Amino acid sequence: MDPNLIKLIAALLWAVIVGLLANRKNRNPIGWGIVGALSWLIALVVLAFMPYLCPKCKQKISNKDAKAGVCQNCVNVEQNEVIS
Ligand SMILES: [Zn+2]
Fold first, then answer.
1. Which of 6, 30, 51, 76 yields a CA-CA distance of 20 to 30 A from 38?
2. pLDDT digits (tens, 9 = 90+) for 66-82
3. CA of 14 to the centre of ligand 1 (A)
4. Cα–Cα distance, 38 to 15 (Å, whole number)
């Protein structure tokens, strides 16, 4: 096989892997996919250490909150709305 073709397939594979992880963390999958295709493992490691983002308010949330599907910011906002 053409070595350039192998490189292209590997880059696409990394784009998909990094894109999926970015999507799971509520980050831009296309932007991260491009970074992943260019930097391979580096993008994956950097992304792995980045915090999850809330899908609603885009604030950083802890891994525990992300797994539970709650965001402390949004919970507080909702409570304030109920009170006021
Ligand atoms: Zn939120």
1. 51
2. 999 899 989 887 778 77
3. 29
4. 8
44 CA to centre of ligand 1 in angstroms: 24
> Which DSSP helix (H) or strand (E) runs through 29?
helix 29-39
Structure tokens at 20: 């999926």
Contact 36, 43 (CB under 8 A): yes
CA–centroid distance, 79 to ligand 1, in Å, is 13
Summarised one tens digit per residue, pLDDT across range 13-46 is 999 999 999 999 999 999 999 999 999 899 999 9
Question: By the 8 A CB rule, do 6 and 24 touch?
Answer: no
Distance 19 CA to ligand 1 centre (A): 21
Specify the DSSP class assigned to residue 57: T
Q: How far is the CA of 40 from the centre of ligand 1 (A)?
A: 30
Residue type, 61: I
